[in-house]
Predict the structure of Crossover junction endodeoxyribonuclease RuvC.
Amino acid sequence: MRVLGIDPGLTRCGVGVVDVAPDRTATLVDVVVLRSPAELATPGRLARIADGLEAIVEEHRPNAVALERVFARSDVSTIMGTAQISGVAMLIAERRALPVALHTPSEVKAAITGYGRADKKQVGAMVARILGLEAVPKPADAADALALAICHAWRTGGVAGAAIADAAASPRERAAAASLTPAQRAWLAAERAATVSGAARRVKE
Amino acid sequence: MRVLGIDPGLTRCGVGVVDVAPDRTATLVDVVVLRSPAELATPGRLARIADGLEAIVEEHRPNAVALERVFARSDVSTIMGTAQISGVAMLIAERRALPVALHTPSEVKAAITGYGRADKKQVGAMVARILGLEAVPKPADAADALALAICHAWRTGGVAGAAIADAAASPRERAAAASLTPAQRAWLAAERAATVSGAARRVKE
């Protein structure tokens, strides 16, 4: 399963492409940070990022797109740009019949590090370890995009277009888990525990 | 000058096309409210609205696009959809080399009714009067899109792609005003006064 992860942004848009095998092994295909100059008007900036996203989709032909779910932040101008780019990214995916899934930052952190409140450094270090990279991808937007892509493949069990699995393990997930190494099973358990508590937190918020 | 006004929204997206002559006379070309069903996932909804916007651009070939400038609102899910649609609309315009201008709701109200805090009913009634329509365009998203288009043409003096004029009248604006009827001049004065005070208010906010 090939996943395109996108950390949406108008100034810097992280884009990562990852292949994930059924045994959850992940390999890096491509990673890039698309940028648009602040001097340009917003429509021009959006088109610049859209051109880059389309070029990556054409080149790597992913099976699915994973996007960060954007929440309200303190800076209104940032959230507007982020939401606009996420709209553009969704349109690009939809017009190529690519399934799109949204994951919250805490879901991504939980999936990658086993801890929903991990910091950027921990996420970057785990991304490098999972993908067998010698260095942590920089800037953080690049690592975040890769983390999103890995998170998506792991949460859906590597099935392109699959719905996000419920917190409770499905029979298929349990069967998949049976073929994992002990270390992978430990990750899966930690990931699920973190996801469950993350989901519970969100409901309370 | 033909202007496409867009009141962006995921559930209802108001779209109005207006021709505005150099003497500020405005005529209705088309008005429609694009909708997307809430049952659809967001990417599908964005594509539905994008298809509608592209069809209107192809059919009516506007010289400029006027979009409502979106601010933070209380409802986060609404602002996200609105921002995503505005991103998609800007991309569509940019890829056809159409200039895009953003106007705040109070700028539109001031331009159309002479009063930046006019209510929806007053804006609708003035839009109908300006365009010589027998009934107020419904729903409000339709009237708002037309108001945006008229506002844009009037604020830029009917010059496609013109930068938004400063609050102070330029020599060209003054020359244009000389060819207006007394009633039109009264509107222009009221509009300018409202815009100036509106701008002052925004700075203080």
User: Anything to note?
Assistant: Residues 182-204 of chain B form the longest helix (23 residues). Strands of chain B lie at 2-7, 12-20, 26-35, 64-68, 100-103. Confidence is low (pLDDT under 50) at residues 161-205 of chain B.
